[in-house]
Amino acid sequence: MTFLSGLLHNRLQRVICVILLTAGLTWLYLWWRILDHTVSAYFQAGGFWLGLLLFLSGMVPGRDGSRKAGRLEFMAGALLMLLWLFLAFVYGITTADDKFQAAHAEVRDAKMEQIDIKHIPSVPKTFAKYKGDKMLGQVPNFSYYQMGDYSIQKIDNELVWVAPVEYNGFFKSLSAKTVTAYVKISAEDENAPAELMSGYAMKYVPSGYFSGNIYRHIRADYPSAVLFEASFEPKDDGSPVYVVPYGHYESTVTYRTSTGYSS
């Protein structure tokens, strides 16, 4: 009760608590959503709420019942909320020309490269998925897993459909601990059988939780990077690899992409 009473009457103590509370909750939100830990990300996630709390704090009367002493908090909170609203809804419109100029494009009059008729994807995704999903039953403890998204990759000079095995929920991931297989189906020959590529131990995957999540694992090494969607790209020797492109903002309207992170 003494602490709460102090917060009501001690403005400096109350402001410090508001700032620390907002910063802590914002950090927790960014950690949970696996977002970049940059100044802009912190302000975008917590700036409005910090302004609102300061605004409300400034309306609390002092010991003498006067609200004059809280004008600074009141005005600071109002300015923070207005700035957040401006950046969220207005600023993007004012930088439209800069965004247009940032997208450099060049038109060339050139012949298209000839298509190799030996490597034309003729197997539709639906058929590949039908064949691949049936392979899940051959995975040890298959009830722990489910099939991931199918994508076309070029492995050992052949176009194939590949789909990683993913965890089938939080509790199943605790029992499974690692992902052990993926499915490969020819995208060029519809008569070729589906292959279960097993015997692996993938610890960091998109369907993982906490430290086993590939995005959270990368975020620990690149806290300020902008992470893009992971793609499953096995190597020519068959070993499974997730590639996660990432980038860094150079200004408010452009970002610089970097080499993908493999796991």
TrEMBL record:
Record keywords, A-Z:
Membrane, Transmembrane, Transmembrane helix
Record field: transmembrane: 12-35, 41-60, 72-93
Instruction: Tell me if Transmembrane is a UniProt keyword of this record.
Output: yes
Superkingdom, taxonomy of origin? Bacteria
- The name under which this protein is listed is Uncharacterized protein
Organism of origin is Paenibacillus mucilaginosus (strain KNP414)
